Amino acid sequence: MAQKAENVGILAMELYFPSQYVDQVDLEKFDEVSTGKYTIGLGQSKMGFCSDREDINSVCLTALHRLIERNNINLHDIGRLEVGTETIIDKSKSVKTFLMTLFAKEGATDVEGIDSTNACYGGTAALFNAINWVESSSWDGRKAIVIAGDIAVYGKGPARPTGGAGAVAMLIGPDAPLVFGCGVHASYMTHAYDFYKPDLASEIPYVDGKLTIKCYLNALDNCYNLFCKKMRKVDSNFKGLLSLDGMLFHTPYCKLVQKSLSRECFNDFLNASPNDREQQFPGLSQFDNYKREETYFDRDVEKAFMTYSQSLFEEKTKPSLHIARNVGNMYTSSLYGGLVSYLVSKSPEQLIGKKFALFSYGSGLASTMFSMTICKDMSAGSKLERLIKSLNDTVSMLDKRQCVQASVFTDLMDVRTKNYQTAPYEPSGSIDVLFPGTYYLVRIDEQRRRTYERKL
C-alpha cells in the first residue's frame, strides 16, 4: 500500500472545444428575435457546436489524448479513469470503455473507474471519485484521470442559444498545484423534473425553463448556506464571499452566473445580524423581512443585489466566464471550463495561495459546493506555472476557430438530429475544419458499432 497522499488535487488540465462556432448576434438575426436577447439577456457571445462528425466518444478521446501528449503521461502510471457525461449514446457501454483503447495499446488495462451520469453534475461526481480514491486505503500510488464532457444540443427555439460542446481532462494526484484541501463539501440533492432526457431516440432534452432556474437558485441557497456553516467549523473567521478569492459556478449561460453571485450576497444579507446588515449592506433595509423561498423571481431583489454585488462579481467570478461566453454550455465540463478561464486570467504569482468555492449543479437534481486552494509554490518552473502555460496555449485556440453562418449552423444541426439513430451511417460533416489531433466518427455499421480515427 502506498503512503498516505497529501495535497491531493489537479496536477494538469486539458480543455477541448469544437473548431466551429456560430456568433450569437448572427443567431439573433436568423431567429428573428430582439437585438441583445442572446448577447445581453443570456450574456453569450459565441456558441461552439459539433457536426455529425463528432460524438461524445470522439470529444472525450480528443481531450484525453491531448492531456496524455502534453504532459508525457505514462499510462501504466494511471490507476483510475473516471468519466462524467450526460451525453448518452449507448444504454450499456460506457464512454470510459472507448477511452480504454488508448490504454490498451500500451498494455495498461488495470484501470478502475467508470462513467457517472446526472445531467451537468457527472463531472463533479467523477472528480470526487478520483480524489477519494487517491486519499483512500485502496490507493496504490498511481494517479487518476477525470474526463468531463458533453455535447449540448437543443431544438429550434429559445433554448437553442444555450447550447455548446466541450470536454475537460484532469490529471489527479498528490502534491498538486490545485488542492482540494480542507475537504468541505455541501450538497443538496432532491427530485425535480426541471430538465431531463426521457426520449432515448433524441439528444434534445425536455426543459421547464422557469422551473430549472428556480431549482438552480434553490440548490445554490442550500449549498451556500451549508457550505458557510461547515467552513466556520474549520475556520471560525470565515465570512462567506468576503473570505473567498474566487467563486465559480456551473454556467448554463453567463447572466445566470451573475445572478447567482448576487444571490449569495442576498443570502449573506438575510443571515446577517441587524447591526451587520446596516454596516455591510447600506441602503438595503427594505428587504429585511423578505423570505428566501419567495424571491427567486423577485425583480426588486435581483436588481438591488446585482447592483450591490457588481464589484464582487468583477473580482471573484467574471474572470471565470471567458470560455462559457465564447463556447457555451459544456454541461459536465462547464464548471471546470470556468476554472480554466479563471486560471488563465491571472499570472501564477497572482494565483498563489488563492481560495475558491465551486458550485456544481445538475438538473434532476444534484448539487454540491466545495472548496479548492492554489498551492504556494512560487519557484521557477513550478507545477502551477507549467499548468497555466499549458492552459494558455489551449485557450488561444479560441481565436483559431471557424465562424459559421447561422443558416449553415442550423442545417448542420438538422443533419445531426435527423440521423441521430440512423445505422448504418457515414457522417457528412467536414473533416478539414477539425483541429489537428481531433478524433472523429468514421462510420456506424449495421450493428451500430462506431469507428473513429484521429486527424493528424
UniProtKB/TrEMBL annotation:
Reactions this protein catalyses: acetoacetyl-CoA + acetyl-CoA + H2O = (3S)-3-hydroxy-3-methylglutaryl-CoA + CoA + H(+)
Q: State one Pfam family annotation.
A: HMG_CoA_synt_N
Superkingdom, taxonomy of origin:
Eukaryota
EC class (word):
transferase
Molecular function terms from GO = hydroxymethylglutaryl-CoA synthase activity
Q: Where is the Hydroxymethylglutaryl-coenzyme A synthase C-terminal domain?
A: 179-455
What keywords were assigned to this record?
A: Lipid biosynthesis, Lipid metabolism, Steroid biosynthesis, Steroid metabolism, Sterol biosynthesis, Sterol metabolism, Transferase
Q: Which residues bind CoA?
A: 255, 259
E.C. numbers? 2.3.3.10
Task: Describe the location of the Hydroxymethylglutaryl-coenzyme A synthase N-terminal domain by residue ranges.
Answer: 6-177
Pathway given for this chain reads:
Metabolic intermediate biosynthesis; (R)-mevalonate biosynthesis; (R)-mevalonate from acetyl-CoA: step 2/3
One of this protein's GO BP terms? sterol biosynthetic process
Active site residues of this protein: 86 (proton donor/acceptor), 120 (acyl-thioester intermediate), 250 (proton donor/acceptor)
Described function: Catalyzes the condensation of acetyl-CoA with acetoacetyl-CoA to form HMG-CoA. This enzyme condenses acetyl-CoA with acetoacetyl-CoA to form HMG-CoA, which is the substrate for HMG-CoA reductase.
Question: Which family does the similarity line name?
Answer: Belongs to the thiolase-like superfamily. HMG-CoA synthase family.
Q: Which NCBIfam families match?
A: HMG-CoA-S_euk
What's the protein name? Hydroxymethylglutaryl-CoA synthase
Source organism per UniProt: Parnassius mnemosyne
